[in-house]
Amino acid sequence: MIYPIVAYGDPVLRKEARDIEKGEIDVKKLAEDMFETMYAASGVGLAGPQIGLNLRIFVVDGTPINENAEDEEDKDPSLEGFKKVFINAEILEEDGEEWGYEEGCLSIPGIREDVYRPEFVTIRYFDTDWKEYTETYEGMAARIIQHEYDHIDGILFTDHLPMIKKQLLKKKLSNITKGDVDVDYRMKFPK
Ligand code: NI
């Protein structure tokens, strides 16, 4: 089932999401639907709040980034087989030098800006079998995790931009909230 993706300006994107209790919902089915929704919008990550669920779950699949790379050396080894579900995740540590990359977000179509994030992230989470993991990621994999993890804490990539950039984006962002934007996947607009 494909969910409409919640657009910038909806309060659900600004709430801190809560943990999912084991047995409360069918997490396998939810994860499946989230992947389907994400692929339909050509995204590489999708978090619960983006489909209107105030729950700490996000899915990622960074492998298309490597598949679309022009040549071998543009491929990021961290994305090899990087398709995962993160439930009740908690970032334990971020480390390394901050590096910039032009990020986008399915909830904020048509805007891409450089965001600086630390190189490494250590995260504890459950998979859909409720098996617990603590793992460290780097490179693009770490970045995708950091971006999606922000979503379950009510943070958007635009929050990381310098004040001047935020000012310049104000009009575009309010247009997204009003539904005045070109987008080729289904969205739910607040106004
Ligand atoms: Ni996003």
Task: Write up what this structure looks like.
- This protein has helices spanning 27-40, 63-67, 139-152, 163-178, and strands spanning 5-6, 45-47, 57-61, 83-103, 113-126, 132-138, 187-188.
- It has four helices and seven strands.
- 34% of the residues are buried.
- By secondary structure, it is an alpha+beta fold.
- The chain has a single domain (5-188), classed as Peptide deformylase (Peptide Deformylase).
- Helix content is 26%, strand content 28%.
- The mean pLDDT is 97.
- The chain has a five-stranded antiparallel β-sheet, with helices on both faces. The chain has a two-stranded parallel sheet with strand order 1-7.
- Nickel (II) ion is lined by residues 105-107, 147, 151.
Strand content of the residues, in percent? 25-35%
The description of the largest β-sheet is:
5 strands, antiparallel
Give the distinct bound molecules.
nickel (II) ion
Give the terminus-to-terminus CA distance: 24 Å
The backbone outline, from C-alpha atoms, is globular
Number of strands: 7
Task: State the helix count.
Answer: 4
CATH architect. name: Alpha-Beta Complex
Radius of gyration: 16 Å
Going by CATH, what is the homologous superfamily? Peptide deformylase
Q: Uncertain regions: pLDDT < 50 for 5+ in a row?
A: none
**Helix vs. strand class:** alpha+beta
Kindly identify the CATH topology: Peptide Deformylase
**CATH class term:** Alpha Beta
Number of domains: 1
Assembly level: single chain
Mean pLDDT: 97
Spatial order of strands in the largest sheet: 2-3-4-5-6
Instruction: Tell me the helix content.
Output: 25-40%
